[in-house]
Amino acid sequence: IFCISDEMKEILDNYGCLKETVPVFLTDTQYLAQKVYWKIEAEEADCLEQDWFADKQHMIFESEPPKGRYLFQARNIKKKYLIVSLELAENLLRRHMYGIRFYPVRRRSGDETL
Fold it and tell me: Which of 46, 69, 71, 94 has the CA that lies 20 to 30 A from 10?
């Protein structure tokens, strides 16, 4: 399940890359506070190579990722990953969003990172 904060949802809404959002209310009983997060769903694409021995630092595109999409979910692999365009990743990093980790994805034909 992918959950994001209100601040991150606002950015992703500007890019128009979310298929569905559902509010999730998390309660901190120690501090008597409640925060809203958003469970998100993104369009799916079948483009990552299924390699049972690869870890997230060695992901490879099997086919060209969808053009014009800033965020999509990889399909037909054993774990769920959200694939983020370089433009969106840079935007999130500039705003110091935390709780998200980026890993490079390489093309099959070489070491070029997308």
Answer: 46
CA distances, 11 to each of 5, 85, 87, 90 (Å): 10, 13, 12, 12
In DSSP terms, 28 is beta-bridged to 33
Q: Which amino acid is it at 30?
A: Q
DSSP structure string for 4-29: EEHHHHHHHHHHT--SEEEEEEEEET
Q: What is the pLDDT of residue 20?
A: 92
Give the Cα separation of 74 and 31 in Å (integer). 37
What is the pLDDT confidence band of residue 67, given thresholds at 50, 70 and 90? Answer: confident
Residues 34-57 have pLDDT tens digits of 989 999 998 888 777 766 555 666
Question: 73: Cβ–Cβ under 8 A, 6 or more apart, which residues?
Answer: 41, 42, 43, 44, 45, 80, 81, 82, 83
The pTM is what? Answer: 0.74
Distance CA 66, CA 54 (A): 22
